[in-house]
Write a structure and sequence with these properties.
Catalytic activity: Endohydrolysis of (1->4)-alpha-D-glucosidic linkages in polysaccharides containing three or more (1->4)-alpha-linked D-glucose units
CATH class of the largest domain: Alpha Beta
Cofactor: Ca(2+)
Largest sheet: 8 strands, parallel, barrel
Bound molecules: ligand LM2, calcium ion
EC number: 3.2.1.1
Shape: globular
GO molecular function, one term: metal ion binding
Protein name: Alpha-amylase
C-alpha cells in the first residue's frame, strides 16, 4: 500500500511471526524484583515530561493502583532541529547524562521518581544499551545537554574501539551473529562483550537505581548477545528499600522470530511478547473475541511475558489496533487487564497527522510541552482503563472460570469469587443475567469509571444470589470486583443504561462528502484504519454514491461509536478492480459529539 508505512516499517517487515523456542544457553541470574503480583500494571507514558509524569502518579496512577510507569529514555540524546525534532531522537544516546533532555532536567527526573514513589508507583526506564547515535542527517551535535560527539566517538565515554567491527547495517536477519553485532538502522553498535562497555552501561543504570528507579525496559535487547545482557544485569545494584530491595525488574525488548526467540532471554528477566500483541489486536479488530479466555496459551510463559495491545513502534510501523480505533482499542486494553496472562503494559499515546516521525506537542526549540489530557494531541488512553487496574489488582491469584459467550464477539468470565467481567465487541448492547461466585452486594462497574477512596463514579450493579443483570454496552464492558463495593456517586449520573438518544450520543452518524471527479464506471470508496472503513483494505471500505444532482460530490454514511479516532483516504476503484489511492498524508478524524450526534467529513480528491 505504501501510503502509511514509515521508515521503521523496514524494521517490522523483517521480524517474522514465528516464535522459536531456543534452548536456554545462559546461566540463570539472581532473582529480580518482579512487580508484585497485586500491583503489576505498567503504563507507558510515551514522551511525557518528567513533571507531568509526577503529577499523573499523584492524581491518577497511584490512586487507581498502577504499579509502574515506563518513561521515555532519560539520557542525553541527539537534537535534530533540521528534521523537526522527531520523537526518536531519544533512541540515539550521545552520553548518559540526565542533565537535559527534551523532557526536563536531572532535578526534574529525581523529583518525579520521589513523587511517584510516594504515590506507590515505580519508575521503569527505557534503557538503550545496544547502541549510541547514527549518522547521515544526524550530524555531530551538540547533544541535548551540550555534549559534543560524532558517530563512534563520545568523548569521555566511548571511542572507536568500543564499537563492533561489523560497522554496517544488519542485512541478513536470519544470521544471529549479524543481528547482534551489526548495526540496527545505522546506529553505532556497542561492543557489549567488552568490560569497559559493560561497566559504563551498568554505571548509567546504577545511577538511575541510586535515584530510585525500580526497573528497566532493555531497548533492542535482541540485538545484544544474551551473555552481554547477563553481564550487564549482573552488575546492577539493588533497588530502593521502599521497593523491598533486590535486583531491579528487567524486561527485555525481544521481537521473536525464527532466528532469535524469547526463550534465550528469559534467564535474564522478562521479555516482550509480540505474538500476544498480534493475537489480541487482531481479535478485537475483527470482533472475534469469544475464544480469548485461553489467550497466551503456547506463548512465552506468562510469568515471563510483558504484554501489550500496541506499543510506540507498532502503533506507527504496523498498526493493527491503536488509539485511532477508539472504543474497540480501549476495550482490548481493558480485556488485557482483566485477563491473567502476562504483565500488562498499557499504552498512552499522542496523536500525529502525516509523518509518524512527528514528535510530541513541543515548543519551538523542540522541548516537549507538559501533558494536557484535555488538549487534542495527548490521548491519555490509560485513563479510560484506570478502573480496570483496580480489577486486576483485586482478582490477582484467581484463574478464569465460568466463561459465557454469545456469538463471536462476546465473552464474559469470572475471576474466582473475586471478580467478574463481560466484554462486548459488537455494535449492539449485550443484555443478560450473569451467574457469578461474587458475594451479594452493590458493585461499582470499574469498566466504566473508577473506584477510588471508596467513591464510585460509574454505574453500579446489585449482585443477588450471585447473579446480576447488565446491559453490556456496544463495544464496551462491565467489570465488578470485591475491592469495589459501593454505589455510584457520580454527579453526572449513575445509569447503567446506554445514554438515551437525543442526549449524549453513544454512536455518531458519520457522513462523508467527497468531491471526486471520475470517469464512467469508477467507484469512490473511503478506506481507513477502522473496521467500519475496511481496516485499510479498499475492497472492504465504505462505498460512496453520487447521482446527476450531486456529482462530483460522493456521499456515504456509517455509524461509529462516539469518540472513534481514525485515519482514512479516498480511493477510486476501477471496473477491473484496480485501486487508485489519493496522494498525500492520511486524513485524520474523530467521530465525536461536538456537533451533536452526527458529523460530516468533507474533502476533495488529492
Ligand atoms: C527500539 N527497540 O528495539 C525502539 O523501540 C525503536 O523505537 C527504536 O527506533 C529502535 N529500537 C532503536 O533504538 C527508533 C525509530 C527509528 C529511528 C531510531 C533511532 O523507530 O526510525 O531511526 O529510533 O533514532 C532513525 C531514522 C533511521 C536512521 C536512524 C539512524 O528513522 O532512518 O537510519 O535514525 O540515523 C539510517
Ligand atoms: Ca548489538
Amino acid at each position: 500500500m505504501g501510503v502509511r508505512r514509515p521508515l521503521a516499517a523496514v524494521l517490522a517487515a523483517v521480524l517474522g511471526f514465528a516464535l522459536s523456542l531456543i534452548p536456554l544457553t545462559v546461566a540463570a541470574s539472581p532473582a529480580h524484583a518482579a512487580p508484585s503480583g497485586d500491583r503489576d500494571v505498567i503504563v507507558h507514558l510515551f514522551q511525557w515530561r518528567w513533571e507531568s509524569v509526577a503529577e499523573e502518579c499523584e492524581s491518577t496512577l497511584g490512586p487507581n493502583g498502577f504499579g509502574a510507569v515506563q518513561v521515555s529514555p532519560p539520557q542525553e540524546h541527539v537534537v535534530l532541529s533540521g528534521q523537526g525534532y522527531p520523537w526518536w531522537q531519544d533512541y540515539q544516546p550521545v552520553s548518559y547524562r540526565l542533565d537535559q533532555t527534551r523532557r526536563g532536567t536531572r532535578a526534574d527526573f529525581v523529583d518525579m521518581v520521589d513523587r511517584c514513589r510516594d504515590a506507590g508507583v515505580k519508575i521503569y526506564v527505557d534503557a538503550i544499551i545496544n547502541h549510541m547515535s547514527g549518522t547521515g542527517s544526524i550530524g555531530a551535535g551538540p547533544g541535548s545537554a551540550g555534549s559534543s560527539y560524532s558517530k563512534y566517538d563520545y568523548p569521555g565515554i566511548y571511542q572507536s574501539q568500543h564499537f563492533g567491527d561489523c560497522r554496517r547495517d544488519i542485512a541478513n536477519w536470519n544470521d544471529k551473529w549479524e543481528v547482534q553485532n551489526c548495526e540496527l538502522v545505522g546506529l553505532s553498535d556497542l561492543d557489549t562483550s567488552s568490560d569497559h562497555v559493560r561497566d559504563r552501561v551498568a554505571a548509567y543504570l546504577n545511577d538511575l537505581v541510586g535515584i530510585g528507579v525500580a526497573g528497566f525496559r532493555l531497548d533492542a535487547a535482541k540485538h545484544v548477545p544474551e551473555a552481554d545482557v547477563q553481564a550487564i544485569v549482573s552488575r546492577l545494584d539493588d533497588v530502593h528499600a521502599d521497593w523491598g530491595g533486590g535486583k531491579p525488574y528487567v524486561f527485555q525488548e525481544v521481537i521473536a522470530d525464527g532466528t532469535i526467540g524469547t526463550g534465550s532471554y528469559t534467564p535474564m528477566g522478562d521479555v516482550t511478547e509480540f505474538q500476544y500483541h498480534r493475537d489480541i489486536s487482531h481479535a478485537f479488530d475483527d470482533g472475534n473475541i469469544a475464544h480469548l479466555s485461553g489467550l497466551g496459551g503456547g506463548l512465552t510463559p506468562g510469568d515471563k511475558a510483558v504484554v501489550f495491545v500496541a506499543n510506540h513502534d507498532t502503533q506507527r510501523s504496523d498498526p493493527i489496533l491503536t488509539h485511532t480505533d477508539g472504543a474497540r482499542y480501549d476495550l482490548a486494553q481493558s480485556f488485557m487487564l482483566a485477563h491473567p496472562y502476562g504483565t500488562p503494559k498499557v499504552m498512552s499515546s499522542y496523536t500525529w497527522s502525516g509523518s509518524t516521525d512527528t514528535g510530541p506537542p513541543m515548543s519551538a526549540d523542540g522541548t516537549t510541552d507538559p501533558t494536557d489530557c484535555s488538549a487534542s494531541r495527548w490521548v491519555c488512553e490509560h485513563r479510560a482503563v484506570a478502573g480496570m487496574v483496580s480489577f486486576r489488582n483485586a482478582v490477582d491469584g484467581h484463574g478464569i472460570g465460568g466463561t459465557v459467550t454469545d456469538g463471536d464477539g462476546r465473552l464474559a468470565f469470572a475471576r474466582g469469587s473475586a471478580g467478574y467481567a463481560a466484554f462486548n465487541a459488537t455494535g449492539s448492547a449485550w443484555t443478560r443475567t450473569f451467574s457469578t461466585d461474587l458475594p451479594d452486594g452493590t458493585y461499582c462497574d470499574v469498566a466504566n469509571g473508577t473506584f477510588v477512596d471508596g467513591v464510585c463514579d460509574a454505574p453500579s450493579y446489585e449482585v443477588s444470589d450471585g447473579r446480576f443483570t447488565a446491559s453490556v454496552p456496544a463495544n464496551g464492558a462491565v467489570a465488578l470486583h470485591v475491592g469495589a463495593l459501593g454505589e455510584c456517586e457520580d454527579p453526572d449520573g449513575c445509569s447503567s443504561e446506554p445514554p438515551p438518544p437525543g442526549g449524549e450520543c453513544s454512536v455518531i452518524d458519520s457522513r462523508f462528502d467527497a468531491t471526486v471527479t471520475t470517469w464512467y464506471g469508477q467507484e469512490v470508496h473511503v478506506v481507513g484504519s477502522i473496521p467500519e472503513l475496511g481496516s485499510w483494505n479498499p475492497a472492504d471500505g465504505l462505498k460512496l454514491n453520487t447521482d446527476g444532482s450531486t456529482y462530483p460530490v460522493w456521499k456515504g454514511q456509517v455509524s461509529l461509536p462516539e469518540g472513534t479516532r481514525f485515519d482514512y483516504k479516498y480511493v477510486k476503484i476501477n471496473p477491473d478492480g484496480t485501486v487508485e489511492w489519493e496522494n498525500g498524508d492520511n486524513r485524520s478524524a474523530v467521530a465525536d459529539d461536538s456537533g451533536g450526534c452526527s458529523r460530516t467529513f468533507t474533502g476533495s480528491w488529492r
